[in-house]
Amino acid sequence: MNLSFKGYLLLNGFFLFFISLNNVFNLNLIDFTLVLSIFLYSIKWDESEWLVPLFLYVWGIFQDILLGMNFGYSGSIFLFFYVLSQLASINGLFEQQKIKFIIFITALLILFIIKNLFIYLFYQLNYLSIDELSAFLITVLLYIPLNSIIIYNQKKYEKIR
Amino acid sequence: MSILIPIGLIIFSLVFYFGRFDNSNFSNVLRAKSINTVYSISSIVSSPISLIKNGLESIYEIKNIYEENKNFKDMQLLDSASFQEIVSMKLKIAQYEKLLNASSDIEFDFRTSRIVGDFSNNFNGTLIINSGKKENNKVDMPVLGSNGIIGRISQVGESLSRVLLISNINSRIPVIISEDGYHGMLIGQGRENPTIEFVEHIEKISIGDLVTTSGKGGIFPPFQLIGQVVGKKSNEIEISIFENISALSHVKLLNYKLKQEN
After folding, report:
1. A80 to chain B: nearest residue by CA?
2. What is chain B's alpha carbon radius of gyration, rounded to the nearest angstrom?
3. Which end of chain B has fewer CB atoms surrounding its CB within 10 Å, N or C?
4. pLDDT, tens digit, for every residue of A119-140?
């Protein structure tokens, strides 16, 4: 996706709106950081794109300040899924939806393990719980409809162009 | 080539995160200075959704008022009995203190603040309240709900402050358990119930025992209710806190100090 000035504005507006939803909803089962990551992974970014990662980094810090998380937490998750999307695109896996889905689940699982391992090692705390697992499963389930919507819109956008 | 930029930024973010720069003064100042701006922008952007959500919640609340009213009427009898009990206990304590010539060494003063941001659902559970430096809020001020301690202030902005909840995995509070006053350290567990570790005579503690602050460390005043014991393992105790944090709309900020000797 090659973005115009208007496109950048819309994209940043979307990031801001989505991050701001944390202000309204305090849900145990839906992690908005991961839901936003679905969008970042599902969109086919232009390979020469270099401004979007910088925006993502800034929005990550913005979200960390808002939620009171340690600096770098949200930014690294956003950028991780952005890089994954770029790698899938470079290797020609973007059109193969099944492989793309498996990569997403694997990435989510890696993130889940790292997060829980970090909490265990730094805080001596076993953070694994039903809520935590449910949030993970709901993100996996949300991927299917959100990815379909994004693919549909992106194809429509490309046709118009 | 362009893929190197996000990879570099990920490495930078991870160094930031695992290096735990949040403990530095720079990070605290940055957070305190930016929280007002960040919160204001995000609340403006989310205001339409917030309006819809609040409207729906109000309809739901109105629906529940009848039922609540009925329950309150039923509870009135019980409450009057426990009120009598509290009054007689207070009188007894006052008499004992007089007999022991003990002086009350703590002065309490509190003010109320409204919760404007609730981020209690993750492992870094925090709240944002609508008072800050202007209202003379200070870092480490104890924060109470209507039923007991819920945390302490961790950052103070111009007109907003952040409350670090007792469920936050960074939270550590010295507590005493049961009437016999066994000491321990209350540790936040994120979404799960908090636990108490380093407990002396753990075998003498029973399910249902009350947990209060011990006053050690000087941040929290002693004997403030927190919760009660709901589970026991070989080296730790699980407690359920009295306050339902997600149902709170206001909190009390406790301004306490030891009484000055005359």
Report:
1. B10
2. 22
3. C
4. 888 887 777 778 888 888 999 9
- Range(s) for CATH 2.40.10.340 in chain B? 109-262
Averaged confidence pLDDT in chain A: 87
- Which of A65, A123, A136 has the highest number of chain B CBs within 10 A, making it the mutation to test binding with B? A65
- Residue B13's closest CA among B4, B1, B21? B21
A30 close to B (CB below 8 A)? no
| CA distances (Å), origin B23, targets A69, A107, B29, B38 | 12, 29, 11, 20
**A125: which chain B residues are within 8 Å (Cβ-Cβ)?**
169, 187, 189-190
Which residues of chain B register pLDDT less than 70? 1, 20-23, 77-81, 103-107, 257-262
Residue B178: per-residue pLDDT: 84
B93, two tokens: 């304590």
- DSSP one-letter string for A72-114: THHHHHHHHHHHHHHHHHHTT-TT-HHHHHHHHHHHHHHHHHH
Q: Taking chain A, what is the end-to-end CA distance rounded to the nearest angstrom?
A: 11
Q: Where are the domains of chain A?
A: 5-160
Given CB atoms, is A48 within the 8 Å cutoff of chain B?
Answer: yes
Complex ipTM value: 0.84
- Chain A contact probe: residue of B20, B46, B47, B193 with most A CBs at under 10 A: B46
Tokens 């990031």 belong to: A15
- Kindly state the DSSP code that residue B2 receives in the 8-state scheme: T
Contact check, Cβ <8 Å, A125/B10: no
Instruction: Answer yes or no: do B121 and A28 touch at CB < 8 A.
Output: yes
Q: Domain B109-262, what fold? A: Thrombin, subunit H (2.40.10)
CB contact under 8 A, A127 and B21: no
Q: Do B13 and A27 touch (CB under 8 A)?
A: no
How far apart, in Å, are the Cα atoms of A55 and each of A14, A15, A108, B42?
12, 9, 22, 16
% chain A with pLDDT above 70:
97
Instruction: Give the per-residue pLDDT at B44.
Output: 92
